[in-house]
Amino acid sequence: MTQAQWKQFICRACGLIYDEELGDPDSGIPAGTRFEDIPDDWVCPLCGVVKADFEPYDHAAPAVVTQSSNFTPRGLGVLIAGAGHAGWAAAEALRALDPLLPITIVTSCNGDRYLKPELSIAMSRGYTRETIVREAGNIAAQKLSVRLLADTFVVGLTPSLHQLRTTRGTMRYTSLVLAMGAQPAVLPAMPANLCWRINELSAWTGLHQKLTAGPRRVVIVGAGMVGCELADDFARAGHQVTLLDIQSAPLAGLLPPQAAECLRLGLEQAGVCFVGSVQVAQVSMAPNGSKQVLTQCGRQFEADEIVSATGLVTDPRISTGAGLAFDKGIAVDAATLQSSAPNVYALGDCVSIDGAPCRFIEPISKQANAIAHAILNMDYAGYVHTQPVIRLKTKSVPVVLHGLPVAGGIWEVCEERQDLLKMQQIYAGEVIVSLEVGKLAGRRRS
Hints:
Layout: E1 8-11, E2 17-19, E3 54-56, E4 64-67, E5 78-81, H1 85-97, E6 103-106, H2 129-132, H3 137-144, E7 147-150, E8 154-158, E9 163-166, E10 169-172, E11 175-178, E12 183-184, H4 201-211, E13 217-221, H5 225-236, E14 240-244, H6 257-269, E15 272-275, E16 280-285, E17 291-295, E18 300-303, E19 305-308, E20 312-313, H7 317-321, E21 330-331, E22 344-346, E23 351-353, E24 356-357, H8 364-375, E25 390-392, E26 399-402, E27 410-417, E28 420-427, E29 430-437
Parallel strand pairs: 5-6, 5-11, 6-7, 11-22, 13-14, 13-19, 14-15, 21-23
Antiparallel strand pairs: 1-2, 1-3, 4-7, 8-9, 9-10, 12-20, 16-17, 17-18, 23-24, 25-26, 26-29, 27-28, 28-29
Helix pairs in contact: 1-8
């Protein structure tokens, strides 16, 4: 077989390419294995989706490009990798400062604009994909006079040559902005073909189609912010929800025990069954067609749908392959958001500042503004990172947290009544955190 006869297939979920010539030795697939000969239970070694989620990859396939009639090339310009909230925010900040700067956005999706935090509260509000999308990607591109390359995956980066390699070919840039977000953490015990991971609109849409057919039994693994919000949302939409967590209480890693207990009671009043101190050992299909979750302590839960909400991680492949500093995310300068490579910036979920990931939507516009000024060499005070206000959008018992708790801090109750618990954490003699839990959390009171 000659090299010209080898075929490649791309994962629709993450962009990984299976090359028949190279095979997948780490998964027991020898070099030279035709894609059609791979067992059907083989999964993507990166994201865990099954063989059926791959499609033929054609180098010559035309890119899906939206380009404004007002687009006027002027040098190489700025290349933005990612069309989530962070990518579009970067494009808006740059365009606000320079109406003629060439800007190209590369994205693995269609580039439609929506707010990801809305996905965890959308079911009970009766949202659909059409109501969640605020603006189609092609319309947003035309309004901003940017070039949008949809359905295009980033596969490599060479900062020294100012080159970004994509599934549509190699692209050159003057400045590059990485806004590729973070991906759900994949646990070996929870295979992707049996578990939903709600981190973007297409996954939410797929689960939405399942849940709108009627009441379903849903098991959610992980009682962090997203898990709690989804559990509350699904229960209010009429589904039977079981929420599992390795900790003894929901959001136990962030809240003091008294506040976590308030959250647990509120979720249970909304119809959520919380089961703590359990760890998933296996997820499988039952003979009757349902799905089963088996814990390490031997407990078993049956469900129609299973959702994994076990946190996010930043994919290190592109950044570390390019030699960028990486520390739980792409390490960036705190003031300019520039990475360790000149002219390469990053923002949003994919970055870390001083070793801490930045996974909140609130700072993104400020980060984008700092990057835009740095790229255009304009005077600017720089980005100043502060801990965002954490708001848990559980309707049964909202939580508002100002500041970030630390180990060794002392929690005090400031006010406690039926619909509100106010606490604060004191460390080294100073109040560093204020917390409100309950239906009055975050509201002004006379």
